[in-house]
Amino acid sequence: MNAAPRLGGRVSWALLVALGMSLTAFTWPLFLSPTSAMSPAQAPLVFALVLPLVLAIVLAEMAGGRMEVKQLAMLGVLAAVGTILRPLSAGTAGFELVFFLMILAGRVFGPAFGFALGAITMFTSGLLTSGVGPWLPYQMLAAGFVGLFAGWLPRASGRTEIVLLAGYGVISAFAYGWLMDFSFWPFALSGDTQLSFDPAIGALANLHRFVLFNLATSMGWNAGRALTNAVVILVLGTPLLRLFRRTARRAVFSPAESSLDGILPATPRLG
Amino acid sequence: MAAEGTVPLNSLHPWAWWCWAIGLGFAASGTTNPLLLTLIALAAISVVMLRRTKAPWARSVGMYLALAGFVLVSRLFFQVLIGSGSGPTVLFTLPELPLPDWAAGIRLGGPVSAEALMATVYDALRLAVMLLCVGAANALANPRQALRSVPAALYEASVAVVIALSVAPQLIESVQRVRKARRLRGDTARGVNALGAIALPVLSDAIDRSLSLAAGMDARGFARTNGLPVRGALPVMLGSVMVATCGVFLLLSTSATVAALAIMGLGIAGTTAGLRLAGRRLRVTRYRRHPWGWHESGVAASGVLAGLIVGVVGGLDPVAMMTPTYPLTWPELSPAMLVTIALAILPLAFTARPRPIPLDSSRHDAPQRTVRPRDAELVRP
To answer: Which chain A residues touch B195 with a CB distance below 8 Å?
Structure first.
C-alpha cells in the first residue's frame, strides 16, 4: 500500500499558519512578559477566543469543498467510535483509547483526514461528556496534530510499519501530554509556590520548574498513555490497517480530486 | 439522548447563552474580590437552575461545580505543601524536607501563612468561577442547535460532528450485539485477547455503516457542493489569522495593551469576514433557522456588558477590582461590582422558565417528530 497522499498547496498554507499559531498557543508561558496586562490566569482565555477561529479555518480548508461524502461519513463514524472510547477509558492512570484510532486512520486516509478526525473526536466527546471549556481548542489542535503527523510518517510495510506506528504512538502521547500540561501549567498552579510559573524569572528557569512539576504530577499519566498507544497498536494495528485499507479501496478514497473526474463528464455546477 | 425530544423554536438561541457566559467569564477573570466572585457564581448558578431544560447536557452543572471544587482544593494543597509565599501571620508550620540541588532547591513543608493561603484562595476562586461560567453555558445552550448555526464554511465539519453525535449511541448497541454473538459461539476469551475479538467486528460494523450512510447522503445530495472555490477567501483568512496571532503575541509579551488588543480585534474581524466569504461556495438552505430576537440580544448584551465593566474599571484603576492580601483586609463591594452582578442575573428577565410543549397530535410517535410550537408558544414573556 502506498504512503499517505500529499496535501494540496492551499491546505499546506493553512496548516503552516495553524502550526505557527498553535506553537504560540502552547508555549505562551515562555514569552509572557511580567509587564503584560494579562495575568497568567487570563492568558488561556485570550487563546480560547482566538484558537477556535484558527481551528475553524483549518477545518474549513481541510474538510470544506474537498471531502467526498464517503470521507465525510467515515469521518463522522470514526469520530463516534473515538467519542465512545474516550469516556470508557479516561481517567484511570492515562489509559486512553482515543489516540490509536487517529494514528491509524491518519496513516491510511492521509494527514488532512487525520487532523480532521483528531479535532472532531475531541469536539464531539467534549460535547457528549460536557467537557467544553478553555482547554477544548487546545485538545482539538493537539489531537489534530497527532493525526496529521501520522499521515506524514515515512513509507514502511508489514512488521516495520506496525513498529513505526507504535513508536509514533509513544512519542505522540508524550508530546500531547507535555504540550497540554505546559499550556495549562500556569493555570493549574497558582502564583507563589516554588513549582509554579513566574513570568519574572525567565524562560529557562520556568522550563526547569515545569519539568519538575511535570515529573511530580503527570508523568505517570503520560507514560500510561504512551504504553496504551503502543500496546493497542501492536495488538490491533495489523487487522485495523487491513480493515481501513480495504475500505479505502472499496470506497475509492481519493484525497485531492475525485478519481472519477477523468472518466465521468464534468458534473453540473450548482447556481 | 432520548430525553432530548423536540427542540422548540421558542428556546433561546444557544449562542446568546454562550455570549452571556463568556462575558461573565471575562468579568470573573478580571477580579480577585471573593465577594464579587461568589456573587457572580451564585448568579450564574441561579440562572442555570431556573432556566435549564430537561436535556442531558443540562445536568452537567454539578460536574462543573465538582471541578471547581477540585481546583480550589488542589491549589490549596500545593500551596501548603510547596508554597513559598510568606507573610507575618503564620498559621502553622509543617516539618521541612529540602530536596536535592537538581530539583532547584525546593523544600517541602515549612511555615504556612494566612496571607499566602488567602491569595491562593482568591486566585483559585477566580479560576473556579470562570469554569462555572463555562459550565453554565454548557447546561443552558443546546449543542445541536449551536452546531446548526455555525458559519457555512464549516458545513462539512459540522455534518461530520452531527454524524458522530448520532452514531455514538448506536455503537453501544453494536458492542452488545457482537458480545452476544461471541457468547453464542462459545468464545470465552477475556482480557487483551477479547479486545481484538470485540473491537474489530464493532469497527468493521461501524465502517460498513459509514459506507451505507454515505450512499444515503449521496442520494440526498449531501456534499455535492464540491469544487466551488471562492477566490480570495484563503488569503484573507490566513492573513487575518497571522494578524490575530501577532496581536496575541504582543498582548502577552509587551505592555502595549491597547495596540495589541486593536491588532487582535482586527485579525478576528478579518477571519470572520474570510469565513463568511469562504461560506459563499455553498448553496445550502437551512431548515427552521433559529431566530435571533431582542431576547437573545438582551441576554448576550448583559454578559458582554458585565465583562466590559470589569475590564474598563480594572483598566482605569488596577487595584479597584482586586482585594489586597498583604495586609489582609475585608473585601468590599463597589457600585460597579453591584452593576456587574445585576447584569449577570439579568437574563432571568429576558427569558421564561422552559415549559414542556403541549402537542397538537396525540399519536404515540409525536415526541420524536419535529413539531412546530403552536403560535401561542412563540410569544415570549
So the answer is: 232, 235-236
Q: What is the pLDDT of residue B327?
A: 76
Which pLDDT tens digit goes with each residue over B36-80? 999 999 999 999 999 888 777 777 778 888 888 888 888 888 778
pLDDT computed for residue B3 by the predictor = 41
Q: What is the DSSP string of A8-37?
A: PHHHHHHHHHHHHHHHHHHTHHHH--TTSS
What residue ranges do the domains of chain A occupy?
9-250
- All residues of chain A having their beta carbon less than 8 Å from the beta carbon of residue B163 are 72-73, 75-77, 79-80
Inter-chain residue contact A66 with B226, CB threshold 8 Å: yes
Residue B323 identity (one-letter amino acid): T
3-state SS class at A68 = coil
pLDDT of residue A225: 85
Best interface-test mutation with B: which of A38, A46, A125, A193 has the largest number of B CBs within 10 A? A193
How would residue A257 be classed by pLDDT, with cut points 50, 70 and 90?
very low
Cβ atoms within 10 Å, residue B331: 17
- Concatenating the DSSP letter of every residue in B161-185 gives HHHHHHHHHHHHHHHHHHHHHHHHH
The Cα B34–Cα B31 span in angstroms is 8
Average pLDDT of the segment spanning B205-227 = 76
Touching check for A24 and chain B: CB below 8 Å? Answer: yes
Whole-Å CA distances, A245 to A1, A257, B204, B214? 8, 19, 12, 17
Distance CA B152, CA B278 (A): 8
- Which tops the pLDDT comparison, B2 or A267? A267
Cell numbers of B8, please?
422548540
Parallel, antiparallel or unpaired: strands B90-98 and B107-113: antiparallel
Q: How far is CA B230 from the centre of its chain?
A: 32
Residue with the larger pLDDT of the pair B373 and B204 = B204
Q: Which of A248, A220, A264 is nearest to A70 (CA)?
A: A248
Mean pLDDT of B101-113: 69
Determine contact: B254 vs chain A, CB below 8 A: yes
A189: nearest CB among B78, B130, B206: B78
Residue A9: pLDDT band (50, 70, 90) is low
Write down the CATH number for the domain with range A9-250: 1.10.1760.20
Contact B252, A46 (CB under 8 A): yes
- Residues in A 68-127 with any Cβ partner in B closer than 8 A: 68-70, 72-81, 83-84, 116, 120-121, 123-124, 127
Strands (E), chain A: none
Q: Is A60 on the interface with B (CB under 8 A)?
A: yes
- Measured distance CA(B138)–CA(A134) in Å, rounded: 12
Instruction: Report percent pLDDT > 70 for chain B.
Output: 81
* Mean pLDDT to the nearest integer, B131-143: 85
B30 is written with which cell numbers? 478580571
Query: Do the beta carbons of residue A86 and residue A129 sit within 8 Å?
Result: yes
Q: What cell does A196 get?
A: 509554579
Which residues of chain B have a CB within 8 Å of the CB of A83?
164-165, 168
| A52 in reach of chain B (CB within 8 A) | no
